[in-house]
Known about the structure:
Elements: H1 9-18, H2 22-35, H3 40-52, H4 56-69, H5 74-86, H6 91-102, H7 108-124, H8 128-141, H9 146-158, H10 162-175, H11 180-192, H12 196-209, H13 222-234, H14 238-243, E1 249-252, H15 257-262, E2 272-275, E3 288-292, H16 293-297, H17 303-321, H18 326-331
Parallel strand pairs: 1-3
Antiparallel strand pairs: 2-3
Helix pairs in contact: 1-2, 1-3, 2-3, 3-4, 4-5, 5-6, 5-7, 6-7, 7-8, 8-9, 9-10, 10-11, 11-12, 13-17
Amino acid sequence: MIMPREPGYLDRADEAYDAGRLEEAAALYQKHIELEPDSPDGHQGVGLSLWGMERYGEALKALNTAQKLDPEGADIAINRAALLTDHLERHLEAVAVCGGLMRRRLKKADLRDARYFAAKAHFRLGSDSKAIALLESALRESPDDIELLIWQAHVFFESGHYEKAKTVHERCLQLDSEDPGIHWDYGLVLEKLGLEPEARREFEKAHELAPEDFLAPITISPKEMEAVARRTLGDLPEDFREAIRNVPVIIDDFPSRAFVRENPTLGPQLLGLFTGNAHYESAPAPTAILLFRKNIEKVVADREELEEEIRKTLLHEIGHYLGLDEDDLQARGLA
């Protein structure tokens, strides 16, 4: 009688990975590599397992090794691009990887993924037009691909093209009316277009579908927010108060569309902004600190947290005015 052969390390690693047992999977992939050092599947498996454990730098090293062993492996390249742009913020490298892929003859699914991750990387580099062009190319091949549509809507929204974002979100809702994230993002678009009742309905729907992920919006009036800002300023040390004595604090709903289009890496959901010259600069320029009320409302769970976020945002922008960098802000509790 011939006994069935026990699955090898690679099969067992794949099974563990699919079941979410990532540490076990990584160890099994490593055992497979010990037997077959030139196995791209083994090195890619290690990379994906480490990625799942949020060990991103190590994951990239393993994926790079897999790519060296299989230079034509499109799936490896796509995983590298995704890791580079989604987690390591090495967007130029992701663009280069995807560019190399798109110059090759690829399967439809691989070409779609190359365009998708290239679009994400270009967007994060501030090139909205390139991102939109890549997404449009991908959508011509797959017009109902909801992941592509969601990202197209996101790019339109973040670049201030709210009407276009609205149209794409409506298409997304036709394809999936039960996705809370789509409802929330659609609400943000409607809010920017001044459609307040419709926006609130979308926020409430998102909260209903996923109450832990999408908080019910907490509201505060401009006057109440001004009062919180005044109390925050009154609690500052005397030298800080004197330094910002002539700097107005302005309460607005959210950044203007013109500002969003001129500053693509900041986006419409900014909580606060310092404009003009820092305290140490002598050249005259209009100086102000802006707090964006409706944006701050969206990132808190209750009224106490809302007031704390107003205080934190105001202190952060005061820190920028005083010329403090991010490390200084963290050290002084203003980040």
